[in-house]
Fold:
Amino acid sequence: MGVCHAVIRSVRPGVPIVDVTHGIARHDVRQGAIVLRNALPYLPVGVHVAVVDPQVGTERRALAVRCGDGRILVGPDNGVLSLAWERAGGAVEAVDISRSSFRLEPVSATFHGRDVFVPVAARLVAGAELLEAGEPLDPAELRVLDLPTPSVDSSLALGHALLVDRYGNVSLDMGHSDLLALGLTLGAPVSVAVRGEEREAVFVQTFADVPEHALLLYEDAWGSLALAVNRGDAAAELGVEIDDEVRVAPIR
Amino acid sequence: MGVCHAVIRSVRPGVPIVDVTHGIARHDVRQGAIVLRNALPYLPVGVHVAVVDPQVGTERRALAVRCGDGRILVGPDNGVLSLAWERAGGAVEAVDISRSSFRLEPVSATFHGRDVFVPVAARLVAGAELLEAGEPLDPAELRVLDLPTPSVDSSLALGHALLVDRYGNVSLDMGHSDLLALGLTLGAPVSVAVRGEEREAVFVQTFADVPEHALLLYEDAWGSLALAVNRGDAAAELGVEIDDEVRVAPIR
Amino acid sequence: MGVCHAVIRSVRPGVPIVDVTHGIARHDVRQGAIVLRNALPYLPVGVHVAVVDPQVGTERRALAVRCGDGRILVGPDNGVLSLAWERAGGAVEAVDISRSSFRLEPVSATFHGRDVFVPVAARLVAGAELLEAGEPLDPAELRVLDLPTPSVDSSLALGHALLVDRYGNVSLDMGHSDLLALGLTLGAPVSVAVRGEEREAVFVQTFADVPEHALLLYEDAWGSLALAVNRGDAAAELGVEIDDEVRVAPIR
Structure:
């Protein structure tokens, strides 16, 4: 939202701002958490704000969290920041900014991005100390997101659909190394079972390695294994929904 | 549109730019005017351009207007700027920039954002005087937007649907104080009548204060009373259209 | 995509960035090439990245090209840059950046915007020489986009639908001067034949010059003749698709 940029510019006119995405589905805390975690290695160390906040205006806490690698994360205490701090060296210091003196008055009940998170972040960018921004919290008390657990043995990789992008590509909670553990090499056919239906896909490097409309399994740009249809929509064609179990096995 | 940023950067490479929104419905001058007025208090004092311009290429005037609080507004003379200058201390000086020497030649017939408004704005940011940008105009002659008038007495608040956001929340031309005038306090049930149908809503602070799918009346992030359905689309469910009369009354 | 901005900011925190568009249809190399060419005169001389890249991850080359006017273009060697360098004084020097040392490691197979094109562009902005970015290429070997050829004589202008914008306005590969060659002046009725059907339009300067729902032919903001319906969708109403032949003739 443009006014959030305006609020930042009111405090620090020339500071570089990067909008990672405005495409998170409404209320989808987990999608926001995963996208932030994925983007993190590409973001210069700085102050990162994430707002997916279905409980805005209630007693849920608002946070600023310093990570082990020096990044500061700002957002609601609903898990949306938790995957990011796990990747950034852990949460080493946290404050509750729900009543921060850096808030924009009057604080609305429904737009804490503008009135709480962004003004606090802007003041931290401007050099304020974390402890000036709010009340100290024990980092161990912060809400952490639970994700399903994949399992891999030598004959089967059992994972889950974690993310679907706007092209219908389905990102799984498995990586390239899991397929290697199955003894698979690039170009190998694999069996993919979703929702009780089994299909054949090819384990390849990129879309153009298979014919149009063929199903492929590849390492996506974030290092996750993903299902896709070349020039098609894998999520729609397979009927995959988030959290669906996906079984991948070699075809011998 | 990206080329408008490019035109600004050609004049002032490093100047901070804030895009308030690109989401105004095509030709909806009033929506543009209201959104600009709402955003204004959050924007640093500067030069603000608004282009909702169904009459582009005709003889409608192009304006640059200095406000009482020092802001300069640039856009077509069709009312889109008028709510903003009312909030910004009034229009104290105005020029007609239709034939401004700051325009980008050749001036297209259909994209005055790029060819007239933005280049004039960039030159004003760069320090040009308003009178260098165009011909003086009497501020009293500028087009002003007419909005419906709400009325409130001790038993009934009669307002109108002013804006519908992308979630279907309906912003009204009434404020919190109007409900207080009705003797309502947070948590009170209210009757809401739209298009001849009466429904019960609750006057609350935020969405999470009511169950899913319940109708609520709350002060939105811009200080207006608004109708919403928690995790739903109030405009669609109530069949509300812009300018519809909305009657709010206490349930005793 | 926001992470591309982040990658630029990691190299050059404060450099001005302009997003020309994120609205190119998936895989539509030609639309990308035309939009870049159209925008070019409005962009300050600098480094311009264009990524429409259906062959990403295959052996297609990645390019950085210096143009006659000093601009540097970065993108895949599939023609998406070719209309731009034609407008910018020609391709005077080119390098293959497919294995550039400026790439971001590990290079993903599917997101070369982030891992190849943008990091190379950022280093060029930061002052690196073109020859440090990759292996020299003969500019004559680069892929060039083929566009259909319009023809105009004194009684008929025969062109093609090149671009359809989000409002359904159809940009043709003809210009204002072609209609003047037909002896047409502003306000003249013209016959427009598409897909075997003939309709009457008016040659005017802008939308507001015709009644609502009337068909008009006008010079669009990029200097091309375009078909539009005032407050309507010309592409939908005429059933026009890209590359369709459009015949324009005077009505005597």
In short: The mean pLDDT of chain A is 94.
